[in-house]
Amino acid sequence: MSDLCENLCVQKKRAKLIKEGRCFICCNTGCYVKKCKKEVCSYCKGRHARAICFKLEKSKQNSHLDLEEKNVDVKTTSSNSVFHNRGGVLLQCVEAEIIGRSSSDKIFCLFDNRSEKSFIKKNVSRSKVEVRLRNILSGEETVIEALEIEEISKATLSLPNPDAWAEMESKGFRLTFSCNESSENCEISLLIGSDFYWSLTHRIKRLDSSLVAVETRLGWSLQGRCDERSDCTSVHLVHSEEESISTELRRFWEIESLGILDKGSVTLDNGDEEILSEFDKSVNFVDGRYRVNLPWKPGMREALQINKTVARKRFEGLVRRFKCDHELFCEYKDVIDDYVREGIVERTSCDSLLDSQGFYLPHHAVIRSDKTTSHIRIVFDGSAHEDGQSSLNQSLYTGPNLHPNILELLLCFRKSPVAFTADVKSAFLQIELDFRDRDFTRFFWTDNLNKEPYVLNFTRVLFGLRPSPYLLAATLKHHFKNDAGMLLRKWRSNSKQLNLLWQQEGVKTESSETSAIDLRPPTKVLGLAWDPENDLIYFDPKDLLKFMSRRGESKRFILSVVGRIFDPIGILGPFVIKLKCLLQELWTLGVERDSELPPKLRHKWQQWSSEAEGLTEIKIPRFYLGSIDQEISKCEIHCFSDASKSAYGTILYLRFVTCNNEIESSFICSKGRVAPLKSLTLPRLELTAALLSARLAKQVSSCLKFDANIYYWTDYLISYYWIRGDSSAFKPYIKNRVQEIQLLSDPMQWGHCPGKDNPADLLSRGTSAVKLAQNELWWHGPPWLKLTPDHWPSRHRDIFRFRALLGRIRTSF
């Protein structure tokens, strides 16, 4: 339907279609609903077009009433390119006054009827969701609601030149901005989306074939292509909300797969080997520091075009922000001054600036309130580029992933009674860049906001380039034992003697940087929180609970919640598995990301959300042996597996016997997975859980390097007999998994235990966070683990007594 009909209600749209004899689905004449082959409404699946859906209209009418309740966290990434041209496209914008409690300020508003919601920059709204605006010319006031967002666009709006402005005025279209207004000052502070677009829009007047004047309650605006008389700055902006959610989910599933994927399948390809070989040839150790080259793709160093215009525009936007927030400028300047003082950046020479080779990096601040040291991090954008040209990041190889396995590191972190941590100060910035690459790291800066900026460039590897993590990991791998010229700081330990020694030696510890213990954030160890005083590790739910307080109830919101859960060793397994199952149901039902949840799933989500408060109670000892300081005479690893129709999983315990014959057991790790969408019988799911157990046990035993026997337990007799039987006698699905289990373990290591004693049952069925925190079976295993083996369930059942059963299960499953 025509955009001009968008301001009509659904009832009037339908009446118009009936009057003109048009089809309710395709809106064409000569077609009938019964015979129309076009797709039906994507919102309610009714036989009509989406534009005339009563349910959708009702949903939109209610959407702004509970805006705060349905607020979602939208992390955005944007890339833009700017170029100057005669003739261009004007976007529909007005200048209006935003009215605060005690003052008002002028801002630029962009009308965008393709955006579902309205957005306002945080520094403009100051946490306000209700926005009161005033027409600069008439004084008419209006109120809308908008979601807060860090950045709408780093680019600026295009304005007509004074001649075009005067022509509009002569035709009676009074524009809200001055004819002398510079495009450089037109930063977008408010985006008015479809939720308020048509309620603020009135008449539309066509000026020529490609330009219209649109009357709004905030004043007249222009939209369309302007002719050669208008001197425009054209802005091409790509704005993505999906990337952050996708990145978080990818990280979540990668963490979930640690320890249960075949490590042998993760190898370096020929390209990665070549990159590593080139690194080894070029890395140098000069004056106490490593010096490296950027990993350029073939021919890209010479082909990379300078992007000075984009970087300058972005910096001018940053300066405008500094003028509004002087405190931010002072903190930002302190960081840059430190960079200069430490030789991390240098003033770019005049000769280098005359060279056509080079690249400029836009930059912005990221505020980190949870950090005990620097609260502000400057992030440089290696992806900025001119229109139609490559960026620096596109010209560089990312490099292979050389980071160690997080699960293995955490397992080893729990092995010893004494643990300590330290942080490499500004790790990336400790590695020097080769002289030939420094001109590709230029950026604009100024010490005085009223003066022209000058150009600096990096001498070190910086945060924001695609290969930076690889270069850091490769450098550490190259000469880890040598003095790499890196300063270690923020030392912390659970040992009182070690802390006292550091204090006597004047070593700067993390505790010395924050005097008040209550104000000190938890120490982070590979993403988990560590309390050295009590030697406990746990998942810190503070940020998750803060995000969930927004009470979103859409698939998008749930995806964002999933991406915020970091639990590599499976402490929260039985609670998180409920969320995984809910996510699978959402996908199975085809629920769209921003649609309302079906009632049944909404109830499940609300229940899970209400139980999340209990996560604050879940903490486990870091050291496997806890407070026991006696010599250990024997260690064993016990693995339990279980499955249900919805999920399956495995959990591992360390059982140890002291020289005084005291027996204890402690949680090592767990892994839980949802059952495949393709329906499997319960015996096959139990066998899959057993395979998961064997894979995880292999990695744990190779990592811990304890001289320990391994025992496997299942409460399902059929899978138990499969594992103890001849794999060649079974169907391919069973045969392949039995063969792998028998390759990873000795069938004689497998035993059968009662279902009530199987802690993995919690992984297959789920439980609340509060119940999980108090569940002794989950944290220590069945009671008989603390008894001698003669009290264990019988591990060796007589297979010959079950030949009839074996004959049936060979053909039935």
Automatic annotation (TrEMBL):
In terms of domain of life, where is this protein from?
Eukaryota
Q: Which gene encodes it?
A: AVEN_84363_1
Q: Which InterPro entries match?
A: DNA/RNA_pol_sf, Retrotrans_Pao, Rev_trsase/Diguanyl_cyclase
Q: What is this protein called?
A: Integrase catalytic domain-containing protein
User: Biological process (GO) annotations?
Assistant: DNA biosynthetic process
Q: Which Pfam families match?
A: Peptidase_A17
